[in-house]
Amino acid sequence: MDSAGRYAPSPSGDLHVGNLRTALLAWMFARATGRRFRLRVEDLDRARSGSAQRQLADLAALGIAWDGDVVVQSDHAVQYAEALETLRERGLVYECFCTRREIAEAASAPHAAPGAYPGTCRNLDDAERAQRRASGRPPALRLRAGVDAFTVHDVLAGDWTGLVDDLVLVRNDGTVAYNFAVVLDDGEMGIDQVVRGDDLLASSPRQAYLATVLGLTPPTYVHVPLVLGPTGDRLAKRDGAVTLRELVAAGHSAADVLGLIADSLGLPGVRSAAGLLAAFDPAGLPRAPWTFSAPVTHPA
Length: 300
Ligand code: GLU
Hints:
With 300 residues, the chain is an alpha/beta fold. Helices cover 34% and strands 17% of the residues. Strands 3-2-1-9-10 form a five-stranded parallel β-sheet. Strand 9, helix 7 and strand 10 form a beta-alpha-beta unit. It is elongated. The N and C termini lie far apart (51 Å). InterPro entries: aa-tRNA-synth_I_CS, Glu-Q_tRNA(Asp)_Synthase, Glu/Gln-tRNA-synth, Glu/Gln-tRNA-synth_Ib_cat-dom, GluQ/Sye, Rossmann-like_a/b/a_fold.
């Protein structure tokens, strides 16, 4: 059995320093623990043409090397359909006709678990289902979950228990949902270590539970702090020169950008990926978000 970590960007635009920092951390955690390091392009939605190639080139420019072929989610339609069929045969899939608004209203009822799908369509009888189908709204497909919470192990957050609900497997436009695709692909790729931004910590109990339903072992997680822009919000395009290409266009080298990221990881003076890996100490990782402001340019 492979043992591997991964980085799984959505090809929706160029990677900014926050994404690049997470990618470097994922690469370092994998390499420092003797794992392979895989890349996966998560292009089921929000894909912009040419973006994946640019992202891969930027990762390579920083000195990140990966193992094996790059996996592309849109190549996996057959695997997703097969896994869905298996769950369906086990009676674990149901149609959900709810609109966002209906879910929000039901979820705000007294005693509803905050953020959980309230199960409105879970036990529709045949007549009710026929009536909903006749309304013309295509259904999403949900997992009939057997638990309402699950505990994951996170290297930074420790044992972390979070909500599990009847999560969406296929959206009502027919797109395979992120949570389902991630779990299937991580399983298929032999991923047993997931390093990513801590905005996804709350999704990890759902994903880990779904893995167990599919007969897979949940990975070890490392949810790392996000990078913030000068306003204190999550770093974004509006914050100026934030991508590698923008920073290079402003006169900084890839080594300069790597040096900024190394600084933020408490490793000043390091200017290469190999140097980062040599100095990497997971126990010494800063636990607070890094606030990034584009460095002043010094014209040559
Ligand atoms: N594709 C997701 C993103 O770019 C990351 C998913 C994951 O790492 O599980 O936010």
